[in-house]
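Input record (one chain):
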Amino acid sequence: MKRIIFIGIALFVFQFSNAQGLLTKTEKENNYFPVKANNLIAIIGAFETEVELLRNKIANKKESVIEGIHFYEGILNGKQIVLTRAGIGKVNAAITTSLLLEHFHPKAILFSGIAGAMNPALSPGDIVVANKIAYHDYGRLSTNGLEKWGTLNPYNFNRNPVYFPCDSILIVTAKEAAQKTMLKNIDIHIPQIFFGTIVTGDVFLADSKKNKALREEFTADATEMEGAAVAQVCYQQKVPFLIIRSLSDSANDSATLDFVKYGKMAAENSAALVLTILLLLK
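The corresponding structure, as predicted from the sequence alone:
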């Protein structure tokens, strides 16, 4: 009799464990992607200068600190937003984006910052809004050059695209905003807003020859150090995103000096476009 009871209990535990396993799997499937807030827009910058310009305009501001990273919630140009600084580089950008999605569940992410120009038609102060964005330092490097690889999605280990496409609706909104945004002149140059390809790598590019080679390899218009990491996290989590970059330099031999000279003004132009986009978002 005791043996029968023991076997019965064992079968129940086994069946319950299986049911729990199925439930856990279903829960994981249902919670695979973050629940998006109805109205919250997330904005990320890399440098303090890029974030400060927008933070100072937030109404009803509330600050929170998660894993040492500061997040600022409030109202900006009539929209509920959360703003944060990612820091420099791909890893920092990926960490910050992941925390944003986990804790705030935004319906979209805008990245505002500065970059180096690769397209010779562009100048400091101009803005490049990404139609698509890629890593320029991910793949296999051999004597034949860099073989471009897509990153692996850790959820299913399928290959991500080499170029992450920005959200089409956000691009349309940015094109409308481009017609309504007043940008600051840099010296005698009247800045323009372009839509094109941006590449990301963990280097500050200040080399004319490397610039030319990367442009030819990726048909890139600008280069920076965070955007593709933000794009990858958003792409994998199915969250709309847009990368906005104002040019501080031409990623050439004089890039370091130009960055110091034009960086703040470039950041102001990027922030100006973000503010107009917020006004137009539904």
